[in-house]
Write a structure and sequence with these properties.
Length: 393
């Protein structure tokens, strides 16, 4: 098959859950199919390159994704979508997988495939609905427009795939016109197992983007609360984003700058090394469509401490008290969970073993096989009758 993946961000230049998903699927499927990834040009040099046997197509130099307010810009999504429809309509595809986020590309894909008749899959990482009001406080008109665009885009695609049961429930609650298949994100088990276990010299790790909805400030405040009891506690923050400077200032103001190390973006192996040397991963995010860092930590034998909430799928990946700990979205609750774990080595060992068993259910190889089956199913159904062509009787 000639498979097209469509997303405006690409790993390793951008490191998020959706980017990792398409990267892992593409490189596996490229061993037996012709795989293309259509995105912005995040790399230097030519617009079209080949990496891991995947044909990468840059539709122009990648612009800034985030504005001064730390939110994704509408201009970026509009610009990408405008270029996308023309490019995709000129190409020959057997099947296309387009990320639902940031929604507007789904409209572009609908236009392109209406003319070509190519089947396309819409992959949903999150569905926000009313959460737009919280994400854009005081910007009611913009929030309402975002809700309408998101709601409208759920009808596009010959199939809908959600990366978690949580996202499927949120998407399904809006009564979409199509059934939703759940195919989770995964973890590279062989890659993680190949990294030797390290001596435990890190207590806590955060891994993810530094944006306000990740609530890394709760972790910083929790370390401050633990300082009198655990003055040698060491925390490493892996990732970057618009909130980094504010978080570093917060650490200094609370006097924990020596205990919290901001490492910025690291490559996969460096992240695995740190996770394997840590006692716990702390995931305080207010919203997660899946929670890839959680299963990565579990695969490393690191116990995840996950904040529960109305808008996050992360807690679904953890059996509280068995393969991780679930706590409330407060610094006090996070600090209490850390204390219960660090002060009980026997419990640590038991939960770490259970966490590794839980991660084994999310092998990228099996997930790639599942998605391949979905692509084959829709590609072999044949092209839909394109717009404007007469239908034969």
């Amino acid at each position: 098959m000639r498979i097209g993946f469509v997303y405006d961000a690409a790993y390793p230049w951008v490191n998020g859950g959706a980017e990792r998903r398409y990267h892992e699927l593409a490189k596996r499927l490229a061993t037996r199919h012709e795989v293309h990834y259509v995105t912005w040009r995040h790399w230097e040099g030519a617009d079209d390159i080949v990496r891991d046997n995947v044909h990468l197509h840059g539709l122009g130099r990648a612009p800034q994704f985030y504005g001064q307010d730390g939110k994704r810009t509408v201009a970026e999504a509009v610009s990408f979508s405008a270029r996308l429809a023309t490019f995709m309509a000129r190409q020959r595809w057997d099947v296309i997988d387009c990320s639902a986020t940031p929604y507007l590309p789904l409209y572009a894909m609908w236009i392109a495939t209406r003319w070509s008749g190519v089947p396309f899959i819409a992959t949903w990482h999150e569905f926000w609905g009313q959460r737009w009001n919280e994400y854009l406080p005081g910007r009611t008109t913009v929030a309402k427009a975002a809700m309408r665009i998101e709601s409208g885009s759920r009808h596009f695609g010959d199939a809908l795939v959600a990366v978690s049961e949580f996202t499927a429930r949120e998407l399904g609650s809006t009564s979409p016109s199509k059934a939703i298949q759940v195919v989770p994100n995964g973890v590279s088990l062989d890659e993680i197992r190949a990294v030797p276990k390290q001596r435990r010299n890190v207590d806590l790790v955060y891994l993810g983007r530094l944006i306000d909805e990740k609530r890394v400030d709760l972790l910083v405040e929790a370390v401050h609360r633990l300082r009198p009891t655990l003055p040698q506690l060491r925390c490493v923050v892996i990732g970057d984003g618009p909130e980094r400077e504010a978080l570093e200032r917060l650490a200094r103001s609370l006097g924990v700058e020596e205990q919290i190390e901001f490492r910025g973006r690291l490559d996969t192996r460096e992240s695995i090394v740190l996770l394997k040397s840590a006692t716990a991963l702390v995931q305080p995010s207010a919203r997660e469509g899946f929670g890839m860092s959680i299963i990565e930590a579990q695969a490393c034998g690191t116990v995840p401490i996950v904040v529960t909430g109305r808008w996050t799928a992360a807690a679904d990946l953890v059996e509280d008290g068995v393969s991780g700990l679930i706590c409330q979205p407060t610094a006090e609750s996070i600090a209490d969970a850390v204390m219960r774990l660090i002060c009980n080595p026997v419990r640590q060992a038991s939960m770490a073993t259970a966490a590794e068993r839980a991660a084994a259910l999310f092998d990228w190889d099996e997930i790639a096989d599942t998605m391949e089956g979905i692509y084959v199913e829709h590609a072999t159904k044949g092209r839909r009758v394109p717009l404007g062509r007469p239908r034969c009787s």
